[in-house]
Amino acid sequence: MATERRTARTHDRALWARTGAAGAALALALAGCGVLMPGAGKGVDSTVAGPGVSDDAVKVVFVAVDLDAVQDATGFKTASIGDPEKQVAALEKWVNENGGLGGRKLDAVLRWYDAQVDSPAAEEQLCNQVSQDDQAFAVVLTGQFQSNARPCYAQRNTLMLDATLVANDTEIYDELDPYLWTASYPEYDAFTSSYIDALDKQGFFEGRDKVAIVAADNPVNRRAIEKRAVKQLKELGVTPEVGWVDTTDIGTIYQGEEQAAITFASKKVDRVMFLGGSRLASIFATIAGSKGFKARYAISTFDNPSFFVNNPETVPSETMTGMVGIGFQPAQDVQDAKLAFPRPGAESECLDIYKASGITFDTREGARVALPFCDAARLLKLGADDVSGAFNAATWSAAVETVGAQFETASGFGTGLGGPSRSAAGAYRFLRFDDECSCFTYEGDDVPFTK
After folding, report:
1. Which end of the chain, N or C, is surrounded by fewer C-beta atoms within 10 Å?
2. Membrane-crossing residues (predicted)?
3. Mean of the pLDDT values across residues 319-341?
4. Residue 227 DSSP symbol
5. Quick one: DSSP state of residue 266?
């Protein structure tokens, strides 16, 4: 299957390499209207069992992206994620040997998604497969960047545990309540405020009254920038120049970022930050370097700092000089030499679950998919074991609201759940590029995300 995918996409290699995209699996981003479809998340009957729930079992689909195939197609360097099928089987075994999901067995299914052909139509097709063919109670999402995907699952009464690095803000969580959760990442409003506050503390805006923002043009990111970031920056005495980028596909990303680089250069803005992920940082740095535009950059986990370190031949080395930001997922941010692997607590617990099935990871980066998968399985179990009444998305969510503060994400820092929160990452650390090691390092202790 992987061979067929690689063969079918051979003609795209030149374009990927030319643009410096960090990988098709994460190069595409939120697109489309993102509007809640009729009936999604509304009128849940808490007395009726959810889809995929029987007296004996609960079906959950884990979605995996073939990142090794993407690496083969692009030539970009990244640690192998291992075998997701075996990882999901290990999680299924652990859950069922420890009481299952509230006494029901976990029936775990893995579905592969070819992110190289990502589109709203492809993600709707996957939604149909998960909700209709598999009839799953829940889906663990990776590589799902189109904004029609999550409303589709909510309309089908399918609980989502989002393990994709996408921007989900309070409004989208409220719209899709009780179906959308993340066991690994922060809520986007809190992230945006914390990101700007951290850059200010790191002196990124010092001596400047303007800053360029390269921004993914999607509804969530628009809300974050227009309602939050612009106001916060102006209060710091900094006027933002926003370069909106249509992230529908790699062609529109390249065109949007090229125009943004030209605009920033003409206005002599030499501080650039990124909002919206979508590999905007790595692609922009490549374009800017080719056009002689020089600036100091700020990034976050959403921009995958490890890509810059792993692929110095793609991004000009001077790009990283003085780079600062915030990180909330060590597997994407820093090398193991800069943060002991594994860390005690949830990360070690997850690695022990895999080790019991003969699965080990040489580096934390290699576990960047396995850890969010483990987070999702652990959170599913935590809520299920406390469900009262019929087992469905509404009763599961009510249980997590009650016991969620006990949950520690293995993928990042802090405990963000409990009460109305739907995002498990509760803290971040200051991130800085170190010229001596040519790598990113964390500075200081955990900082809670601003609410």
Report:
1. N
2. 15-37
3. 96
4. I
5. H
228, burial (CB in 10 Å: exposed 0-12, middle 13-18, buried 19+): middle
User: Which of 412, 444, 446, 430 has the alpha carbon at shortest distance from 200?
Assistant: 430
Has residue 51 got a pLDDT over 80?
A: yes
Residue 444: partners with Cβ closer than 8 Å, 6 or more residues away: 429, 430
Q: What are the structure tokens assigned to 276, written together? A: 């919206």
The domain made up of 2-185+342-425 has a fold known as: Rossmann fold (3.40.50)
**How is the beta sheet containing 239-245 ordered, strand by strand?**
239-245, 210-216, 271-275, 296-300, 324-327, 427-434, 439-448
For residues 428-436, give the mean pLDDT: 96
Which fold would CATH assign to domain 189-335+428-448? Answer: Rossmann fold (3.40.50)
- Report which residue type is found at 330: P
pTM of the model: 0.89
- Structural domain spans, the chain: 2-185+342-425, 189-335+428-448
Token pair of 434 as six digits: 């170190």
For the cut 80, the answer to whether the pLDDT of residue 26 exceeds it is no
Instruction: With cut-offs at 50, 70 and 90, classify the pLDDT of residue 292.
Output: confident
